[in-house]
Write a structure and sequence with these properties.
The protein is mostly helical and 454 residues long. It has 16 helices and 8 strands. It has a domain of 124 residues. Helix 14 crosses helix 16. The termini are far apart.
């Protein structure tokens, strides 16, 4: 085809293109004939209603309530334990339906999220559950202390609380406990808060510069996960005590973890850093790992004093991280298991974490309202993963720090993977707040959020 024929061919297509555009009126959600472009890959690209979000949260909450047994059983026979005077080695929490009244980090995120949902929606059932869960733990803790003294701490008998060995054992659920203590100043809560503060402040492994670290899978390792396993607790301790040293440590973790884990070119977070491979550490931008960092940074900024000397630096890191996340959001509103690998699967926990953090940033003014539609689309995608029974699909199971992309590609998802439930609850509550806080203009099939006029 000659150049002149190219011109004729192109001009011939112009009326067809304009004609096609003319047939797409600016219809909205209420018009049954409105159809989203096929490039949207099925995403419901509309503004959700508060009632729709609350209905999804209620389904999740219903699943959590139905699955919480509040029983101590003989883990060998399944029979209830009724005599709490003389401990038996096989006694443990009845978690046959899940982790719902255990002491671990995924439930810490859930319990804190339920408090937040209660605050946003005014529904006391959510916060009542959190306090009931903590009371169940502390009502039986002396029994399990006796069990541990006689037989050694058992994994099914609150071992993570009785023998803290890692940030996973105390940081996230400790942050939830501090938030619960603000509602119910139970001295049992405060005693455990102090134990956690002592562990993180003085016993947890750190690098020479004070960055929290792990001795696995390499002798000196730094995981993105540990941002959420530490920073929210440190931030809440600052709020609880008024002592700036806690904010100082929380800010140190954000800044120094980011120095090692955040890619300076893309702003994405590597899942882990190993001292013995630096500065040639291979980078894997695992979605949930990056989500932990962004969510933790948002939690710090939420309570950090405006005049703290490190606030500007922390805020800059948050904004850089949020921009990086926005730029790799997929066409459905979800984020990928490996953020920069579009052939990796779409994953719910990372999507929830980014949705929450971006919505929180918009609501608190850390991000401009141009970010709001990202959180809107993220929630709409998540809503499709909330099943009628309240379980959430497409959550990656527990994941260690690995050395190859194939591992991350092949981590399965599981409806019982609790790492995603708390973040989905947090995302829903924050999007409700976002919808209340802005006027939303629908123009040419997109959305512009404007700060409400007084």
């Amino acid at each position: 085809m000659t150049p002149s024929r190219y011109v004729v061919w192109a001009l011939a297509l112009v009326p067809l293109a304009f004609g096609a555009l003319a047939q797409i009126p600016p219809k909205g959600r209420s018009d049954p004939s409105f159809q989203q472009p096929s490039l949207a890959a099925g995403v419901d690209y509309v503004v959700p209603t508060e009632a729709e979000i609350k209905a999804a949260l209620d389904r999740i909450f219903g699943y959590i309530v139905r699955s919480t047994a509040y029983r101590i059983i003989d883990t060998q026979t399944g029979q209830p334990v009724t005599d709490f005077t003389n401990p038996i080695k096989t006694a443990g929490v009845d978690n046959r339906a899940g982790q719902f009244n255990d002491w671990d980090y995924p439930m810490g995120v859930v319990l804190a999220a339920l408090l937040n949902v209660s605050d946003v929606t005014g529904d006391p059932r959510y916060s009542d559950y959190t306090l009931k869960d903590f009371d169940f733990i502390f009502d039986h803790l002396d029994y399990f202390r006796k069990q541990a003294a006689q037989f050694g701490a058992q994994s099914y008998g609150y071992r993570r609380l009785l023998e803290m060995r890692a940030l996973d054992d105390c940081g996230a659920i400790g942050a939830a406990l501090v938030k619960a203590y603000a509602r119910k100043p139970d001295p049992r809560y405060r005693a455990t808060i102090n134990d956690i503060a002592d562990y993180i402040g003085h016993k947890q492994m750190r690098l020479p510069d004070g960055t929290l670290a792990r001795p696995r899978p390499q002798p000196v390792a730094l995981w993105a996960d540990d941002a959420y396993m530490s920073i929210p607790f440190l931030a809440q301790m600052g709020k609880l005590t008024g002592d700036r040293v806690w904010y100082d440590d929380a800010a140190r973790q954000v800044i120094q973890m980011s120095q090692r884990l955040q890619d300076p070119r893309t702003g994405l977070y590597d899942h882990a850093w190993y001292e013995n491979t630096a500065p040639y550490d291979p980078r894997f931008f695992w979605g949930r790992g990056a989500g932990w960092v962004l969510m933790a940074t948002a939690e710090l900024l939420s309570v950090m004093p405006e005049d703290h000397p490190s606030r500007a630096k922390v805020l800059d890191i948050f904004r850089t991280s949020a921009r990086a996340a926005v730029e790799v959001q997929g066409s459905t509103g979800m984020w990928h298991q490996l953020l920069d690998k579009t052939d990796s699967y779409l994953e719910s926990s990372a999507t929830a974490m980014f949705t929450f953090a971006i919505a929180r940033g918009v609501n608190r003014g850390w991000l401009t309202p141009v970010y709001a539609p990202v959180a809107q689309a993220g929630w709409q995608a998540l809503a499709t993963r909330v099943r009628p029974d309240g379980r959430v699909a497409d959550i990656c199971v527990s994941t260690t720090a690995a050395y190859d992309a194939v591992y991350y590609y092949n981590r399965p998802t599981d409806l019982d993977a609790m790492q995603g439930y708390g973040p989905v609850l947090m995302a829903g509550a924050e999007v409700i707040t976002m919808l209340r806080s802005f006027d939303i203009e629908h123009t040419l099939n997109t959305y512009h959020y404007r700060v409400k006029k007084n």
